[in-house]
Amino acid sequence: MAEVQTAIMADAVACALITGASKGIGRAIALQLSLDHNLHILLNYASDTAAATETMMAIKEAGGSAELLPFRVHHKEEVQQALDTWQAEHPTDYIHVLINNAGITKDGLLMWMPESDWDEVIAVSLKGMFYLTQYVLRDMLLKRSGRIVNIASLSGVKGMPGQTNYSAAKGGMIAATKALAQEIAKRKVTVNAVAPGFIETDMIKGLDTRQFLPLIPMKRLGKTEEVAHLVSFLVSDKASYITGEVIHVNGGLYS
Q1: Positive or negative, the Cα torsion across 156, 160, 164, 165?
Q2: Which of 2, 57, 77, 87 is 20 to 30 A from 39 via CA?
Q3: In the chain, how many H helices and how many E strands?
Q4: pLDDT tens string for the chain (255 positions)?
Q5: Which of 224, 115, 211, 204 is nearest to 155 (CA)?
C-alpha cells in the first residue's frame, strides 16, 4: 500500500474524500491522489452526475478505485446522512484524507449584492468545510493519522473587487486552517490550505483573460494538474511536518 496508509489497520481501506470533485480542480486532485497514493476515492458532488461519473470512470480506467458520494456540503442533514450511510456500508474503512474543495462564485459589487448571494457563497465554502471536517476529524484524531487540505483562493488572500463574498469565504477558510492546525497537530493530523490563482477551469470561463494575463509574471493560466500535484505532496508522509500553511499556486501574481 502507499505511504499514507502506513498507520491504518491492515484490513482497512484508506480513503480520500474530495468535495466538488466532478470537474476542474477537484477532478484533477481526485485523479492525482488515486495515482500517487492508491487511495480509494470518494467523489462528492452536488448535481452534475454525468461529470462525476466521468471522473470516476477515468480513475478506474487508470487502475484506481472510486465511488460517487452526492450531497450538498452546506446542508448538514445531507452531509450526515450520506456519510453515516457510507460508514455503515464500509465499517472497517476510514477517511484518511479530506479535501475541502467545494465552492461557488456569485460575483457582483457589494452595494447591489443580494443577501442570498452572500449567504450561499459563504455557506458552501465555510459551512461545508465545517460540516465535513467535524465529521471526519474524530476518527482521524483517534487513529492519530490524517490529512486535511482546504482549497482556498487568491481571492481569499488579497481580496478581489466584485468578489467580496467569495473573498470573505476563502479568507475565512484560510484563518480556520491556521487555527485548526494548532488544535490537532499533537495528534499527527495536518491541516493546510492551497490558494490557486487563475487556473483553467469553468470558474473563469467568460472572463477576458487579456485583462489579467499581463499581471501574471508567468504570463499564462495555471493548470488544474499543477494544483493537484501540490495537494498530493501535502497528503503524503513527506509533508508530515507541514501544517497550518497557505501555499500559493498563482504564477507569481501574489505571494
Answers
A1: negative
A2: 77
A3: 8, 7
A4: 444 444 445 578 999 999 999 999 999 999 999 999 989 999 999 999 999 999 999 999 999 999 999 999 999 999 999 999 999 999 999 999 999 999 999 999 999 999 999 999 999 999 999 999 999 999 999 999 999 999 999 999 999 899 999 999 999 999 999 999 999 999 999 999 999 999 988 776 666 777 778 888 888 899 999 999 999 999 999 999 999 999 999 999 876
A5: 204
Q: How distant is the alpha carbon of residue 38 from its chain centre?
A: 18
What is the per-residue burial (b if ≥16 Cβ within 10 Å, else e) of 76-110?
A: eeebeebbeebeeebeebbbbbbbbbbbbbbbeee
Which residue bears the cell 503524503?
236
Tally Cβ neighbours within 10 Å of residue 205: 7
Cell of 136: 471526519
User: Catalytic pick from 131, 166, 241, 254?
Assistant: 166
Is pTM beyond 0.90 here? yes
Known catalytic residue at 131:
no
Q: Rounded CA gap, 219 and 162, in Å?
A: 23
SS3 219: coil
Residues in the chain: 255
